[in-house]
Specification:
The complex is a heterodimer of chains A (about 110) and B (about 120). Chain A is built from no helices and eleven strands. Chain A has about 110 residues and is mainly beta. In chain A, strands 2, 4, 5, 6, 9, 10 and 11 form a seven-stranded mixed sheet that branches. In chain B, the strands form two sheets. In chain B, strands 2, 4, 5, 9, 10 and 11 form a six-stranded mixed sheet that branches. Chain B has a five-stranded antiparallel sheet with strand order 1-3-8-7-6, with no helix packed on it. With about 120 residues, chain B is an all-beta fold. The chains are: A mainly beta (about 110), B mainly beta (about 120). The interface of A and B includes residues 31, 43 and 99 of A.
Chain lengths: ~110, ~120
């Protein structure tokens, strides 16, 4: 089975712009979660989607949003980018029932200038 | 409030010896625990997991121990190899309603260096 794929792998944006990141889960997985990794805060949960519905959301401002499509692919969007949004954004997929293992993609490295 | 803590930022061991990575948690609702290995600029790779109904799980060179009364888990790697050098993250998920069981809470990680 192919693993989780994320596009693009690297991205450079300027403050105030918006960005959309994409994630394709492992075939058959219906849950997609997003995490942000920064040196200071570590890995922090953004949100989780299952069957096109957001089931859980972390403590991030409303500038961070996401969605999931009927084929389980997911996108996350960050509007009005700030310098502090520079991070590695990770997507993880799982079948969708607790307890279970989440499998991560390679991440998208976002740099905001 | 950090619910999952890895108090050792780094650990150095000799090749062939045992590596022991530790993790403490505070949330008594956590019932599933995982260890991931991560290289820079890559996504975490799943290593091993354990359910709260067990106190030990083994997979090859990797063993995870869970002490529920102490809210402590550890990952043992025996024997350690230079290729094991990476950052290791402990993560936990909780039972419950309202979506709380659909996310992983991570520790800050421990950098393991295995010297040849």
């Amino acid at each position: 089975k192919a693993g989780v794929t994320q596009t693009p792998r690297y991205l450079i944006k300027t403050r105030g712009q918006q960005v959309t990141l994409s994630c394709s889960p492992i075939s058959g997985h219906r849950s997609v979660s997003w995490y942000q990794q920064t040196p200071g805060q570590g890995l922090q949960f953004l949100f989780e989607y299952f069957s096109e519905t957001q089931r859980n959301k972390g403590n991030f401002p409303g500038r961070f949003s996401g969605r999931q499509f009927s084929n389980s692919r997911s996108e996350m969007n960050v509007s009005t980018l700030e310098l502090g949004d520079s991070a590695l954004y990770l997507c993880a997929s799982s079948p969708g029932q607790h307890p279970e293992t989440q499998y991560f993609g390679p991440g998208t490295r976002l740099l905001v200038l | 409030d950090q619910q999952v803590k890895q108090n050792s930022p780094s650990l150095s061991v000799q090749e062939g010896r045992i590596s022991i990575l530790n993790c403490d948690y505070t949330n008594s609702m956590f019932d599933y625990f995982l260890w991931y290995k991560k290289y820079p600029a890559e996504g975490p790779t799943f290593l091993i997991s354990i359910s709260s109904i067990k106190d030990k799980n083994e997979d090859g060179r990797f063993t995870v121990f869970l002490n529920k009364s102490a809210k402590h888990l550890s990952l043992h790697i025996v024997p350690s190899q230079p290729g094991d050098s990476a950052v290791y993250f402990c993560a936990a998920s909780a039972r419950g309603s309202g979506g709380s069981n659909y996310k992983l809470t991570f520790g800050k990680g421990t950098l393991l260096t295995v010297n040849p």
